[in-house]
Amino acid sequence: MMERQAGVALWRQIADRMRLAINNGDFDETGMMPPETVLAARFGVNRHTVRSALASLAEEDIVQPMQGIGTRILRSRHLRFPIGRRTRLSQGLGAQARELEGLLLEAACEAAPQAVTDALTLAPGTACVRLETVHSADGRPVSRSTSFFPASRFAGIDAAYRRSGSITAALRAFGVSDYLRKSTEISAVHAEGDDMQRLRLSPGAIVLTATAVNTDLADVPVQYARTRFPADRIKLTVEPES
Amino acid sequence: MMERQAGVALWRQIADRMRLAINNGDFDETGMMPPETVLAARFGVNRHTVRSALASLAEEDIVQPMQGIGTRILRSRHLRFPIGRRTRLSQGLGAQARELEGLLLEAACEAAPQAVTDALTLAPGTACVRLETVHSADGRPVSRSTSFFPASRFAGIDAAYRRSGSITAALRAFGVSDYLRKSTEISAVHAEGDDMQRLRLSPGAIVLTATAVNTDLADVPVQYARTRFPADRIKLTVEPES
DNA sequence: TTCGGTTGTCTAGATTAATAGACATCTAGG
DNA sequence: CCTAGATGTCTATTAATCTAGACAACCGAA
Fold this sequence. Notes:
Two copies of one chain form a homodimer.
Chain A: H1 10-23, H2 36-43, H3 47-59, E1 63-66, E2 70-73, E3 79-83, H4 89-93, E4 100-111, H5 114-119, E5 127-137, E6 140-150, H6 151-154, H7 157-164, H8 167-172, E7 179-190, H9 193-198, E8 206-216, E9 221-230, E10 234-238
Parallel strand pairs in A: 3-10
Antiparallel strand pairs in A: 1-2, 4-5, 5-6, 6-9, 7-8, 8-9
Helix pairs in contact in A: 1-3, 2-3
Chain A binds a DNA duplex through helix 3.
């Protein structure tokens, strides 16, 4: 049933599977997890091992144990983030959450890495403004972004972003009335370091990473962004254009 | 540096990071891994722990240890799989591999799960043909697909697929001259069970999952597919339409 | 109040992971 | 032919994980 000796602790494998089952709506009828003894039998492990897994999910605020009653399921449901020609970070989640919040963690102007200058068709080492942001939906972090803008054209865009809390508005302040997504590259890795903390993930959690280039209406690249989404809270969708 | 007591063995965390570094081209200059003692110092662990990690990568045929010389890096580089309005499984990888191979694992006709009938706008429990396939590039498995076709319209499509080895050709045999992708939903999870074996992944490895619906030119859904890609070998790209 | 079912806690032992050190084995190069 | 530097193998010890069992604490309902 479960893999032993795999380099991943049994309780973590079980936690992953239970998180998946919860997001899949497997326990929606009752809103409760099955009793620990039942889960232990189902996974073929000791009850203590299941308890470790449940403790991990409780740490993530996914379940809430209640002595004498059972273990309640708190949140479920994936949010959907649409990717298309007119992808906007804040708008995308739109009506799926009651409250959306963007936070600017850091802003700097520095020589950009080669991957960035290549994507923006700049000379190697060109200075760029770098913005580090986190977005939360209903108090839960849902994305962590690192954006680059050519400094020659967008010097001070960090201040504009700070005022408006929106990339779209900040770009408009620099004469970019509209912008389109030129390309998106999607991958997935295990969460690490800063992302783990900012997105409040446990070690071994998966983050979807979307690397995107946006251009203005003249097809000139204006932004390079690498956004990380917690895979257990967000699904990416690719929709045809209207 | 590395997380202990996290439910994920140190050697596996290190293996993940090294696999990422390899795919990132960090060691392309020499084509060799740094010596085990250097890696051990860099990660702050014992040499034996690094050796466990390297053994895991060797198991995946990512590196090849050579006594007295060092540890050679075998393959690297991600393949890119484009997702768009005209996504085709085989064509997508096109020129990126010398040899592409599709294999039909299983075919069955059965009542489809609700997620499938919902997506194909069929009545719950409608019979569908289910195809299980694996695709390999240069001998390495790169995707594992589960497809559903409405049985009323496509009974026997498994035979057509077996003959041609292509979904596109199989659909054409049933009068679908062309088809378009209506929606794609992307997520990522840890590899499990059959996928782990078929894609030759180790436990804890990440698979990107793309759930797609294709329609014919009259906008009638013809196929529901759930494709799993090994995240360490494939990146998904979303390109605007030409 | 009593009872069945649930989570919470404790102890003990067995298995697996990680550290530490020593030394063998192999290769390229001086 | 050596030697420096690399991987391969072995033993021993410590720490973390998993199993096993017992019982306490708590809740809801009969």
